[in-house]
């Protein structure tokens, strides 16, 4: 950064004209500060991990606040090291987090049961019943599936539920006092009607009738109409409240952060991924790869049938999106990279994590197009698309396969995309067409590897921009900037704002699928589908 720009950014920070985005991901809480040109100027992060307690994937709420404060403090330290000042205010703030899950509170605002994250796959009965009743796919992860499973299991806490929300909705509530949610995140709680931008009225009535039937039979049921238990739905740019004094102290215990800053509607990681890749218009889509991996495709019209492989959600503006969500993404790949890093250190040549990834990805490019006959599953947890309630990471090969580092690494990268490509086949069958598919997330920081293999897996060109590695924290910061622009009367629709203000002049690296890679990946995927029986047996017996 040249001295002139450094001085301009320093002045903007001092004057509170920068925008803060915070995203709570599966393994990291990241804070991103962007300037008036939407370019990142500083960041901070804090690592955290979910826990498997009582057969439930969860995060303690104290870890949420410890992590947020740590990430914010790290960002302030980064700002000071770069610009010699510490921020005390911002143009706007945005909060994003992992979608779905279940945080239920009493009328006294007490958490009734430990946070149940999107990763839990114990809601099969509820998902099946609601899908049948609604005529609309309700995946295992969705918040209404978690509530209804508690109803079916006659959990004692159900009668005390006064409010339930997602992680982003919870954090935003604590920072502002407002029980609201961006429409993209809300669409992973309960079905949205794109015509109204709110929860689907017919399905709300259907659920309330179902609850009334149980109540009449003396069975467990929610204490009120379900719409009254969920957050208010807001579209991008809407008034979502301001940072309160207590909220400022939660984020910055040092007391330097001033209250009164406007916040944009809280969003899920799917919505911020769409923003971060400028894929909010029909016939655009994006793939986000992290602990989980998912594809979002903005539709021109509703699908013709219900498909269990597809979530129907929305963009932050409320447009209909088909989502292929896979619980398992790059975590197993990262575990293997860690093992190879340990091996390098044992040989007396320790290497940084990025260097290990770079070397392994370079090796993958040299592998046989089909991975040499090797097979891998990255299933650390269950995978609804392939019908598995639990997962077991697995690597196998046949006697005539070719085991080499190059083939092993290509297979591991292919495995990240395996379940995703099975779900994308369903969209192909519906005749859905894409003008552009964008990719983002740390997996795509190493140029020309994961992007190339993803193009082969999708059979379509894949674009990666300069912000590919910034991810959701940058995306929610952009949504916060959009909220400020709406407040100032300087913005209309989100799509136009992104195209004209955020991504104007952005350079994209577009990779078309290589025919040899496509044929090789198809052979891999055939083995992958056939071997699911082995993965299922592993989950049942190990």
From TrEMBL:
SUPFAM superfamilies under this entry? Actin-like ATPase domain
InterPro entries in UniProt: ATPase_NBD, FGGY_C, FGGY_Carb_Kinase, FGGY_N
Q: Keywords for this entry? A: Carbohydrate metabolism, Kinase, Transferase, Xylose metabolism
Which Gene3D superfamilies does the record cross-reference, listed alphabetically? 3.30.420.40
Q: What is this protein called?
A: ATPase
Keyword Isomerase assigned to the entry: answer is no
Gene source species: Zhihengliuella salsuginis
What Pfam families is this protein classified in?
Answer: FGGY_C, FGGY_N
- UniProt superkingdom: Bacteria
Name the gene that codes for it: xylB
């Amino acid at each position: 950064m040249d001295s002139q720009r450094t001085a301009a950014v320093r002045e903007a920070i001092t004057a509170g004209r920068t925008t803060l985005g915070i995203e709570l991901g599966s393994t990291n809480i990241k804070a991103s500060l962007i300037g008036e040109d939407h370019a990142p100027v500083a960041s901070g992060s804090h690592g955290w991990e979910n826990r498997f307690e009582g057969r439930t994937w969860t995060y303690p709420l104290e870890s949420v606040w410890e992590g947020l404060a740590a990430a914010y403090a790290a960002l302030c330290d980064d700002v000071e090291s770069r610009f010699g000042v510490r921020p005390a205010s911002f143009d706007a703030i945005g909060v994003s987090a992992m979608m779905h899950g279940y945080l239920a509170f009493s009328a006294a605002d007490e958490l009734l049961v430990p946070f149940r994250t999107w990763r839990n796959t114990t809601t099969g009965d509820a998902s099946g019943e609601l899908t049948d009743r609604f005529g609309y796919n309700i995946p295992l992860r969705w918040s209404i599936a978690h509530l209804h499973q508690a109803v079916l299991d006659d959990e004692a806490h159900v009668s005390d539920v006064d409010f339930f929300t997602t992680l982003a909705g919870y954090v935003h509530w604590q920072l502002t006092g407002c029980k609201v949610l961006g429409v993209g995140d809300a669409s992973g709680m309960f079905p949205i009607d794109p015509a109204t931008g709110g929860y689907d009225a017919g399905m709300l009535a259907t659920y309330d009738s179902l609850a009334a039937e149980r109540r009449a039979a003396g069975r467990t049921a929610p204490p009120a109409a379900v719409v009254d238990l969920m957050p208010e739905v807001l579209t991008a740019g809407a008034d979502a409240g301001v940072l309160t004094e207590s909220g400022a102290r939660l984020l910055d215990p040092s007391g330097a952060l001033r209250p009164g800053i406007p916040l944009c509607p809280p969003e899920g990681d799917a919505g911020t991924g769409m923003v971060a890749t400028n894929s909010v218009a029909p016939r655009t889509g994006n793939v986000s790869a992290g602990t989980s991996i998912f594809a979002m495709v903005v539709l021109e019209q509703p699908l013709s049938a219900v498909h269990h492989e597809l979530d129907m959600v929305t963009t932050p503006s409320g447009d209909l999106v088909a989502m292929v969500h896979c619980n398992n993404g790059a975590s197993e790949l990262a575990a293997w990279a860690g093992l190879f890093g340990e091996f390098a250190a044992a040989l007396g040549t320790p290497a940084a994590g990025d260097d290990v990834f770079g070397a392994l990805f370079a090796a993958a490019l040299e592998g046989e197009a089909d991975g040499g006959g090797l097979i891998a599953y990255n299933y650390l947890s269950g995978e609804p698309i392939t019908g598995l309630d639990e997962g077991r990471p697995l690597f196998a090969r046949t006697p005539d396969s070719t085991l080499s580092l190059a083939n092993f690494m290509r297979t591991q990268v292919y495995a990240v995309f395996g379940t995703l490509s099975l779900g994308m086949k369903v969209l192909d069958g519906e005749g859905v067409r894409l003008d552009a598919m964008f990719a983002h997330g740390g997996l795509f920081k190493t140029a020309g590897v994961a992007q190339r293999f993803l193009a082969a897996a999708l059979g379509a060109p894949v674009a990666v921009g300069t912000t590919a590695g910034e991810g959701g924290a940058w995306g929610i910061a952009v949504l916060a900037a959009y909220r400020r622009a709406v407040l100032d009367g300087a913005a209309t629709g989100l799509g136009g704002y992104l195209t004209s203000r955020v991504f104007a002049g952005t350079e994209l690296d577009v990779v078309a699928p290589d025919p040899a890679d496509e044929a090789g990946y198809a052979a891999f995927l055939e083995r992958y589908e056939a071997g699911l029986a082995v993965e299922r047996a592993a989950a049942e017996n190990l």
